[in-house]
Automatic annotation (TrEMBL):
Transmembrane segments: none annotated. Keywords: Coiled coil, Golgi apparatus, Lipid transport, Protein transport, Transport. Residues 63-122 form a coiled coil. This is Vacuolar protein sorting-associated protein 51 homolog. The keyword Protein transport applies.
Length: 729
């Protein structure tokens, strides 16, 4: 049997099965798996069993069929061999072709790498040339853009200068819509520069617009004009923010009541809505910073309109109705005035931002204190003078509001001074802002609060208590006495005693806050000094440690600040009596009297014994006293706190003999400069001795330096300081 006798579909199926069996050796992936009992068709499956197939074939076929099947199978085997041979040849040809392609790609890539390098060089060259062109044309491009902006600006300027002529042409041709369009377009420039650069143009344009408004009003109230023309005139007048006059409105009411006698209720509602609209506009107006004279002008206009409408619509009781509406506008003006005053004072205080060099040369804290004093006192007096115009005016509306205005002013000062106290605490960093609109304190909290600002706030609080509040009280008693509209049961609106207590307490808090801020800064320096070295392995002292210089520099900066802000106090130098030792140290002088014959151990024991005995028999010294508003008191308190911190830091360490002697040297050097800046030398001696005692108690071998060595090291330090500062005596 030849291959041509096999149908094409069967041949394709057989080829597919053959390839599937070749590339998919997994029996589980072959579809149509045979069942347990074999069939004659199972010869093409992967689970083919020859013995089972032969037994089945013999049972079902005769001899002739067996011979026929033999011939068929021989032909199929030959065809399969041929197909496999062709498959191998085809795959081999494809493999050879792929190998040739890979060789050609390798040869092409070798040449391409050099081409890519050349391409990269050309791209870099193009980029450099492009950068050169951009650089060479940059100035010209900037100049062209500048000229373009200048050209646009000149066009706008030319438009402003041509505006009066344009408006005149529009008036002649009655092109009022174009005239309104031109004028409203120029309004932003007139608002910004109308009082300086374009003053003449603005005046001429306003004269032309006045003619336009007059003509539009004539169209609006002319019976001969069409409804459309009158409507257009009304729209243009509204664009110019020029409403119809109340006089014409009153005439319209009179005519309307004649035509419609029963329209009184609608007219009353309309008139009241007009009054409400006027005062709502006034409330928006007072949100800006205006003077009382400007507000009085607005109120006079509104009151005149109210009286005019009251003549034709008396049953609306518009004067009483407007009185209720006016209360909100005037009260908001009073409140906004105090808000602006608080803002002015805060702005002055926020300018306190100086460097130590400026503080030493220009006295900026003193300037800031004087400016803030002026802002508080003069600002309060200006506000009172501004409010007095409401009481001095004879406008009927204000006469009826007189008691309310007095109460509002007194309540306003009470609230303003309380808010000022909160603002002081906020600026000093003692209180966090809970209001979302406290953007003004960002300048104070963007970095750490300046200690100088806190000192200014403390002194300013005392100034407000002692000067500002009594002055405000006198002015209120003279010009704003009476009132009572808020009711007797609510108590007085302005309580100066309470405000004085608030600022007295605020001044004390701020002064203590300044002392704490400065003390914490110095304590950080002392903590670093005593926590850094290994005191058990400390070397012998050769000079006064540099932390002493840093300590004295900090105290000098504090002295510069307090001299600008605080007055000098009464000089009270407390010296120790002879029975308690000399003015230098009642603990160290007995040690100086010891003789060289004692051993180091005996001398150390003697020192501790004498120290404790001196402590028992020494006069009682009050270390911490109330901080006064004087230079000496503040500096003395800071020095006391720093020395107590120094004593605590010493108690946390363990010293060898050299470390103890270094502490002795540093403390002994500090005695003289500290006594020069404090008012209580006895306390300073006591605290310095306490540091020495604490060091000796924490020392493994508390043997002090010999007096000659101690004096020689101190004199060497003084000579070195004199060389560094030859001007200083």
């Amino acid at each position: 049997m030849g291959t041509d006798d096999v149908p094409l579909d069967d041949k394709a199926k057989r080829m597919r099965d053959l390839l599937s069996s070749f590339y998919s050796p997994d029996p589980s992936s072959t579809p149509n798996a045979p069942s347990k009992h074999g069939t004659l068709d199972a010869i093409n499956t992967t689970s083919f069993d020859p013995d089972q197939y032969m037994n089945l074939l013999v049972q079902k076929s005769n001899l002739e069929a067996l011979l026929k099947r033999h011939v068929e199978m021989a032909a199929e085997i030959k065809n399969l061999d041929t197909d496999l041979q062709m498959l191998v040849y085809e795959n081999y040809n494809k493999f050879i072709s792929a190998t040739d392609s890979i060789k050609r790609m390798k040869s092409n890539i070798v040449g391409m790498e050099a081409n890519m390098g050349q391409l990269l060089d050309k791209i870099m060259s193009v980029q450099s040339r492009s950068d050169g062109v951009n650089t060479s044309l940059f100035e010209k491009r900037e100049h062209i853009e500048k000229l373009h902006r200048t050209r646009n600006l000149l066009r706008k300027v030319q438009f402003i200068y041509d505006l009066p002529a344009r408006l005149g042409k529009c008036i002649k041709s009655e092109a009022y819509a174009d005239a309104v369009k031109f004028y409203t377009g120029a309004m932003p420039i007139f608002k910004a520069y109308g009082d300086s650069s374009f003053q003449d143009c603005k005046r001429a344009s306003e004269d032309a617009v006045a003619i336009i408004v007059k003509n539009l009003q004539g169209k609006l109230f002319s019976d001969s004009e069409s409804i459309q023309a009158r409507a257009e005139a009304a729209v243009l007048l509204k664009q110019l923010d020029f409403p119809a006059s109340v006089r014409e409105f009153a005439e319209a009411i009179r005519a309307y009541r004649i035509i419609f006698p029963d329209s009184g209720r609608q007219l009353i509602t309309l008139a009241q809505d007009l009054v409400i609209n006027h005062f709502e506009t006034t409330e928006q107006y007072v949100k800006r910073r205006i003077s009382s004279a400007n507000l009085l002008g607005v109120l006079r206009t509104i009151w005149a309109d109210v009286l005019l409408m009251d003549e034709v619509l008396h049953e609306a009781v518009l004067p009483d109705f407007s009185l209720e509406a006016a209360q909100g506008a005037v009260k908001k003006y009073v409140a906004s005035t105090f808000t602006y005053l608080l803002q002015d004072i805060s702005d002055v205080l926020l300018r306190v931002n100086v460097s130590p060099k400026e503080a030493a040369e220009e006295h900026p804290l003193q300037v800031a204190l004087e400016a803030s004093r002026k802002a508080v006192l003069q600002g309060s007096m200006d506000v009172l003078l501004d409010f007095c115009q409401f009481l001095d005016d004879d406008l009927g509306l204000l006469v009826k509001l007189r008691d309310f205005i007095i109460d509002w002013v007194q309540e306003g000062f009470q609230g303003f001074l309380s808010a000022l106290d909160d603002r002081f605490l906020l600026l000093s960093g003692r209180k966090n802002s809970s209001s979302p609109d406290q953007g003004l304190t960002e300048g104070a909290h963007s970095e750490k609060v300046l200690a100088g600002l806190v000192l200014v706030l403390a002194q300013l609080s005392i100034f407000i208590e002692q000067t500002v509040i009594p002055r405000i009280t006198e002015e209120i008693a003279a010009s704003f006495s009476g009132g009572g509209a808020r009711g007797i049961e609510n108590g007085p609106a302005f309580v100066p005693g309470e405000i004085c207590r608030i600022f007295r307490s605020a001044g004390e808090k701020l002064l203590h806050h300044y002392v704490n801020m400065r003390t914490q800064r110095v304590s950080a320096l002392l903590r670093k000094r005593f926590s850094t070295p290994n005191w058990v392995k400390h070397k012998e002292p050769r000079e006064v440690h540099m932390f002493v210089d840093l300590f004295l520099q900090e105290l000098k900066a504090i002295g510069i600040e307090v001299k600008q802000i605080l007055p000098q106090g009464l000089l009270r130098k407390h010296w120790r009596s002879d029975s308690n030792g000399s003015t230098t140290s009642s603990r160290s002088n007995p040690l100086r009297d010891d003789k060289m014959s004692r051993s180091n151990t005996q001398r150390a024991r003697s020192q501790l014994l004498e120290t404790h005995l001196a402590k028992l028999f020494k006069q009682k010294v009050e270390i911490f006293t109330k901080v006064e508003y004087t230079q000496e008191s503040v500096v003395t308190t800071i020095v006391k706190l720093c020395l107590k911190s120094l004593q605590e830091f010493v108690r946390l360490q363990t010293f060898n003999r050299s470390g103890f002697q270094q502490i002795q040297l540093d403390i002994q050097f500090l005695r003289t400069p500290l006594k020069e800046i404090v008012e209580d030398e006895a306390v300073i001696d006591f605290l310095l001795d306490e540091v020495i005692v604490a060091a000796s108690e924490r020392c493994l071998d508390p043997t002090p330096l010999e007096p000659p060595i101690l004096d020689r090291l101190i004199q060497a330090k003084l000579a070195k300081l004199k060389e560094q500062n030859p001007i200083t005596p």
